[in-house]
């Protein structure tokens, strides 16, 4: 029996090509099983090991399988012998004439074929599952996807898989994503990528298929409190509060239309912009209740040839364009960390010096981290030397926090710096809402799109020392109660955040 299998192995690896095929097939099979076991028990989690396990090893396995028959046919052609003559050389006359042995050999070939098919099927399934994992998307091409991976891990959607938003459902979407992935690999190999990578507006799935699986427009109702705190650049980093009552309704019941009117099922808004950045709007078309449309044209950008490729139907991502990959600006990043207590607000001039530390000019991440540390330590050593002893832990924590902020938002290799990816949620610096709600977009009689502040929110405080200025005379004990009474009197539905 052993001799029979040895003869079989010699038969399929009849020359160096066949032997190479046997070695590749056997070693890649064993290696994949070994790596798969290590991944299952959690010893190996690196994306590059996953690429080796599910892409390289199955490829080597297939190459080995191809080399085995190729070696046989090459040997047959070079020897000039028939298949029967070659079989007689590998097996004895009795083995060839014995039908039981022949049947066993045939069965062996069939079993090995089935094992190969099963192995390749399992490898393909594991490969597809692995490529759907966020760690693969973020780290397999680390130099390119580093910025997206860094912001994804600290985002509100860090537990939502990348493919949930970037890959559609069904076989067609799967094939499209893999073809797109192939082009990305080619672009990386030959350095064809833009730096920074543009937002893939035309490749994003419609919000109806992504965002609205969890966020229902029909459930956007009432109002909610949003409190924003900014810190001044004075010695005490004095807090300034802005408190808004956001009107988040999607419908117009009881005259309560709010922010999410734009994506209500009853409404449709089409627009065109000069480019994929969607910052300069050429025209906006609103479908009215009676089925007619109303067109607003930009005084700056509209021409008769404005039927551009950038035309799209407005949905969630036109405002929430940074729902996951959120890049901060330095002032807001520092404000947020002070508000959360990650940066001690009792440190003198901490807001001013923190912003200065992370907005200096650097060349590498390592140099940036060192200069951020040197900046804060140097400032307090020169101006408040006693704090290096009494507040050393607070200073160290502030340094570590600022380094994390910088490393999350700035990526040299991809030319990602402060402000490269603006956030359109809100209306900072004339962007966001004001892209459309401005006096330049007018209808046929010259009337602009409404841009009254109270359309979207009521302002309870604006850069004020107290979050709720209308309650500034209330005592601490009854302030919360007074706030709820006020909200109930002003709004039918509300939530506090």
Describe the model.
The strands form two sheets. This protein has a five-stranded antiparallel sheet with strand order 6-3-4-5-7, with no helix packed on it. A four-stranded mixed sheet has the order 8-2-1-9. The protein has four domains: 2-131; 135-193, no CATH class; 217-323 and 425-496, no CATH class; 330-414, no CATH class. Helices cover 46% and strands 10% of the residues. The protein has helices spanning 2-12, 16-40, 47-79, 83-90, 93-97, 99-131, 134-139, 142-152, 162-166, 171-189, 330-339, 350-358, 365-383, 387-390, 392-409, 479-490; strands at residues 223-231, 239-247, 269-273, 281-287, 293-298, 312-313, 441-442, 457-464, 494-496. The protein is extended, with a radius of gyration of 32 Å. It starts with a helix and ends with a strand. By secondary structure, the protein is α+β, with helices and mostly antiparallel strands. Strand 1 (223-231) and strand 2 (239-247) form a beta hairpin. The longest helix is centred in the N-terminal third of the chain and has 33 residues, at 47-79. Mean pLDDT is 80; it is low at 471-479 and 489-497. The chain contains 16 helices and nine strands.
């Amino acid at each position: 029996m052993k001799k029979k299998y040895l003869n079989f192995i010699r038969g399929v690896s009849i020359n160096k090509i066949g032997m190479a095929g046997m070695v590749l097939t056997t070693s890649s099979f064993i290696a994949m099983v070994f790596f798969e076991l290590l991944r299952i028990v959690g010893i190996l989690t690196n994306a590059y090991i996953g690429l080796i396990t599910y892409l390289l090893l199955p490829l080597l396995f297939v190459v080995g399988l191809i080399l085995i028959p190729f070696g046989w046919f090459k040997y047959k052609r070079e020897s000039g012998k028939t298949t029967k003559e070659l079989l007689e050389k590998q097996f004895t006359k009795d083995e060839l004439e014995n039908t039981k042995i022949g049947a066993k050999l045939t069965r062996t070939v069939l079993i090995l074929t089935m094992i190969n098919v099963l192995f390749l099927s399992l490898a393909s399934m594991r490969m597809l599952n692995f490529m759907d994992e966020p760690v693969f998307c973020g780290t397999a091409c680390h130099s390119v996807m580093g910025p997206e991976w860094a912001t994804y891990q600290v985002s509100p959607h860090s537990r939502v898989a990348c493919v949930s938003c970037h890959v559609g459902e069904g076989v067609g979407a799967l094939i499209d994503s893999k073809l797109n992935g192939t082009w990305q690999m080619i672009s990386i190999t030959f350095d064809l990528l833009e730096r920074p990578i543009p937002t893939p507006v035309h490749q994003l799935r419609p919000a109806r298929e992504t965002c609205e699986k969890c966020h229902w427009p029909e459930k956007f109702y009432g109002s909610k409190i949003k409190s924003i705190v900014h810190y001044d650049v004075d010695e005490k980093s004095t807090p300034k509060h802005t408190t808004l009552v956001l009107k988040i309704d999607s419908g117009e019941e009881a005259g309560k239309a709010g922010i999410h009117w734009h994506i209500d099922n009853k409404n449709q808004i089409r627009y065109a912009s000069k480019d994929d950045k969607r910052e300069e709007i050429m025209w906006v078309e609103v479908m009215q209740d009676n089925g007619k449309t109303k067109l607003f044209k930009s005084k700056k950008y509209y021409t008769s040839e404005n039927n551009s490729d950038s035309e799209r139907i407005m949905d969630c991502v036109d405002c929430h364009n940074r729902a996951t990959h959120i890049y901060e600006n330095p002032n807001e990043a520092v404000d947020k960390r002070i508000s959360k207590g990650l940066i001690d607000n009792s440190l003198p001039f901490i807001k001013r010096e923190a912003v200065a530390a992370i907005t200096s000019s650097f060349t590498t991440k390592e140099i940036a981290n060192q200069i951020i540390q040197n900046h804060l330590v140097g400032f307090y050593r020169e101006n408040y030397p006693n704090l290096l002893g009494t507040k050393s832990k607070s200073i160290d924590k502030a340094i570590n926090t600022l380094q994390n902020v910088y490393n999350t938002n700035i990526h040299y290799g991809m030319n990602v710096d402060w402000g490269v990816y603006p956030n359109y949620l809100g209306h900072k610096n004339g962007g966001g809402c004001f892209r459309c709600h401005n006096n330049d977009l007018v209808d046929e009689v010259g009337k602009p799109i409404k841009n009254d502040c109270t359309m979207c929110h009521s302002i309870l405080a604006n850069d004020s020392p107290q979050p709720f200025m209308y309650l500034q005379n209330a005592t601490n004990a009854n302030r919360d109660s007074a706030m709820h009474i006020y909200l109930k009197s002003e709004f039918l539905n509300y939530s506090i955040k």
